[in-house]
Amino acid sequence: MALLSTAGKAPLKDRADDLYESPPEAVHALLRAEKLPPMIWEPACGPGSIVRVLRAAGHRVIASDLVDYDSADQDFHGWDFLSERRAPDGVQAIVTNPPFKLASEFAAHALELCPLVIMLLRLAFLESERRTAILDGGHLARVHVFKNRLPMMHRAGWTGPKVSNPTPFAWFVWDRDHKGPTQLHRVSWEAAIGC
Ligand SMILES: C[S@@+](CC[C@H](N)C(=O)[O-])C[C@H]1O[C@@H](n2cnc3c(N)ncnc32)[C@H](O)[C@@H]1O
User: Fold this and answer.
1) Which CATH class is domain 23-153+168-192?
2) Pocket lining: 22 vs ligand 1, CB cutoff 6 Å
3) What confidence tens digit (pLDDT) does each residue in 77-92 have?
């Protein structure tokens, strides 16, 4: 696995706009909706919001990111996911919330590296002609749409008012073995955490 030097080129403060940490509630909802395999790769882990919940649920998680977040929940930094040629040994699924600007590239590349790919994405990811290959290629097995809005994902370093989340999100599940149309499910993060 390449330990690239690119992470050192720009300081974290210049890259912080890539970081919107997933609310743990979203991961609890995923655990209720999908049976995840034992060994998972979170390749854009940030400080480890998804990683922590998956590990607490008993999964082995390899946590990498381009940036060093100086977090105990991050295993590796300097890993540019889009340059990785293979998944770490034993990985059975990729689970992440990717940088939004690169979401399509992340999804396509992840499916090349791993048979099961699960990403937290804006529901609007379903739109766009540009994403036809990744959306209509036959491997998008399930979409779990949140029927209640997730807590807001504020940009790292955000000091403004905390507002409610105006954006609908969903977990997108790609499975190389999937055949047939995409199934749509509605999930609740409040139910997942017992509200
Ligand atoms: C939207 S944040 C989500 C962080 C984390 N996955 C979570 O859910 O809390 C996107 C993350 O992608 C990372 N990132 C951006 N470009 C990357 C790349 N090419 N390879 C790996 N990670 C990248 C950023 O540093 C940031 O941590």
Assistant:
1) alpha beta
2) yes
3) 999 999 999 999 999 9
